[in-house]
Amino acid sequence: MIYVMELPQTVEWAVHCCWLLAQTDGSPVPRRRLAEFFDLPEPYLAKLLKTLVAADVLSSVPGVNGGYRLARRADQITVLDVVQAVGGHTAMFHCAEIRQRGPVGLTPAQCRRPCGIAKVMYEAELAWRNALAAVRVADLTENAAGVSADRAARWLGSQARAGLAPGGSGPQRVESEQA
Amino acid sequence: MIYVMELPQTVEWAVHCCWLLAQTDGSPVPRRRLAEFFDLPEPYLAKLLKTLVAADVLSSVPGVNGGYRLARRADQITVLDVVQAVGGHTAMFHCAEIRQRGPVGLTPAQCRRPCGIAKVMYEAELAWRNALAAVRVADLTENAAGVSADRAARWLGSQARAGLAPGGSGPQRVESEQA
């Protein structure tokens, strides 16, 4: 009877991958490199990346220099976009209209408005979605901003966004923010 | 890969049962009567009711006149209490600290604070919980207040809360609110 509502572990992978791709200069990152960065099993990651492409969160670039990049600017993709791509768009709560069942059930005519109980559940779910929609991939950090950017830049090398590369002189200097 | 995060159907049953029990005068309602009211399979409902008793949402009264009633006043039980009793207390999102993995992973010392990505997920979940915690079982209706109360009173008969019974003269008169 105990049932735990959990998001799949791949939500964590998906959001972290999007964060990493937001640190690039826009050139595609090969799947193998993404898998290595987070030490993820590449076959599973491959399925996840396809799902994110299908949901228009990522785009894939074919060819020897191909890979994955964000489908839009990092400030135009919300965490909700990523979570819904992986977790589906279906509602958490499904009203089966049990208020219409039984010997004294309400009539369909009495049920033109959503059940008050379902409404409470839907509103809570909306609060969850709104909170995720308020955060953009561009806003994400894994740690303090400097530490996160440095970690990405070390891996991405010349693919890193200008100003994020180690020793870069952009507004998000790495060394000074690492303290 | 597509995974849909859904609450179990029994959440709907549980909240509706609590709503019905909030309409009583406090005397226990037999399990069979609860199952009949919502046309629910009694063996499944039995397991659910036990879960709700274990979570201190309901209390069970043994004996021939026994049954189930709310463990506390209906304004002292929140919808979150009911949902958590059925759906578990575990978080929706589980951070596996993948920021610490891979060749340039963050060090444990750099991860004393929660991952910024996990934090976004936790805050969204908190918004969901807070929305459910803001609604008490006493606040619930399945329809307009009068229609809901009338439906319960018709089933509960003399067990119905004073003022809710058909023809009652309490503040929640049935007939006048049914329009």
Tell me, rounded to a whole number, the average pLDDT of chain A: 88
Query: What is the helix fraction of residues of chain A, given as a range?
Result: 40-55%
Distance between the termini of chain A: 49 Å
**Largest interface, per-chain counts?**
A-B, 72 and 73 residues
Radius of gyration of chain A: 21 Å
* Helix-strand sequence of chain A: HHHEEHHHH
Task: Please tell me what the overall shape of chain A is.
Answer: elongated
DSSP strand tally of chain A: 2
* CATH homologous superfamily annotation of the domain at 9-89 and 136-159 in chain A: Winged helix-like DNA-binding domain superfamily/Winged helix DNA-binding domain
CATH architecture of the domain at 9-89 and 136-159 in chain A: Orthogonal Bundle
Q: Strands across the major sheet of chain A, in which order?
A: 1-2
**Remind me, CATH topology of the domain at 9-89 and 136-159 in chain A?**
Arc Repressor Mutant, subunit A
Please mark out the parts of chain A with pLDDT under 50 across 5 or more consecutive residues, or reply none. Answer: 167-179
Q: How many helices of chain A does DSSP assign?
A: 7
What does this protein look like?
The structure is a homodimer of 179-residue chains. Chain A has seven helices and two strands; from the N terminus they run H-H-H-E-E-H-H-H-H. Chain A is mostly helical and 179 residues long. In chain A, a hairpin with a 5-residue loop joins strand 1 and strand 2. In chain A, helix 1 (10-22) runs antiparallel to helix 4 and helix 4 (79-87) crosses helix 5. The model of chain A is unreliable at 167-179 (pLDDT under 50). Chains A and B meet through helix 1, helix 2, helix 3, helix 4 and helix 5 of A and helix 1, helix 2, helix 3, helix 4 and helix 5 of B.
